[in-house]
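Researcher: We are triaging several targets before committing to wet-lab work. For this one, the compound of interest is nicotinamide-adenine-dinucleotide. I'm pasting the protein sequence and the ligand SMILES. What I need is the predicted three-dimensional arrangement of the protein with the ligand bound, expressed as structure tokens, so it can go straight into our comparison scripts without reformatting.
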Amino acid sequence: MATILITGCAGFIGSHLTEKFLKNGHQVVGIDNFDPFYDRSVKEQNMASFINNDDFRFLEVDLADSEVLLNCLKGIQIDAIVHLAGKAGVRPSIEDPQGYIRANIVATQNILVLMKEQGIRKLAFASSSSVYGNTKETPFNEIQDVSNPISPYAFTKKACELLNYTYHSLHKLDIVNMRFFTVFGPRQRPDLAIHKFTKLILNDRAIILM
Ligand SMILES: NC(=O)c1ccc[n+]([C@@H]2O[C@H](COP(=O)([O-])OP(=O)(O)OC[C@H]3O[C@@H](n4cnc5c(N)ncnc54)[C@H](O)[C@@H]3O)[C@@H](O)[C@H]2O)c1
């Protein structure tokens, strides 16, 4: 069985993935810094089912702090990384581009340095459909040109894809960039439309216009 590092393990997708790996008999090291994008209490609740699991180790660490990241993982054998941590959301990124550059680009750069330093070969990275911007070419595919991002969020995700490619090319790291579209289900991020609509319907506050 493998030891997987999951970044963003307190988030929506990360908490589900952590549960899945633990259920399949793997060990998980989870990193999250409880970014204030939404409530810490929601994220603690996301981790409730596994925080006390003997095969899970939690590190509350900001990935943008390279020294702390390298130190906290010293001596832990990691077989693969799923890097989900980051600041999500298109509109908030327009207000806070610096924050997105730090949480997305700097953090990813630090993950790549960690891989190189500790000989970790495999990385799956959470990119986004937002890299397609206003492209008119449909259906979207993996080889079309995505060099015209229309938000700082999209720019940071595209930049991370390029960083990953560079490390793959230079150091032969095995990396996959996954471009998620809207992911939904229990524990979905509170800023997303499906979460908001469902909450309004459940609270009888939805107005049906006919
Ligand atoms: N949910 C979607 O529909 C969707 C779509 C496209 C891409 N994505 C990407 O997938 C990933 C996971 O999305 P999610 O919906 O689960 O988001 P989420 O906000 O629920 O989870 C992300 C987690 O990363 C943590 N984090 C942020 N910055 C960090 C840092 N510097 N150090 C350590 N932890 C940090 C946050 O505290 C949070 O718990 C994100 O990178 C997001 O951009 C998600």
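Researcher: Any quick observations?
Model: The mean pLDDT is 96.
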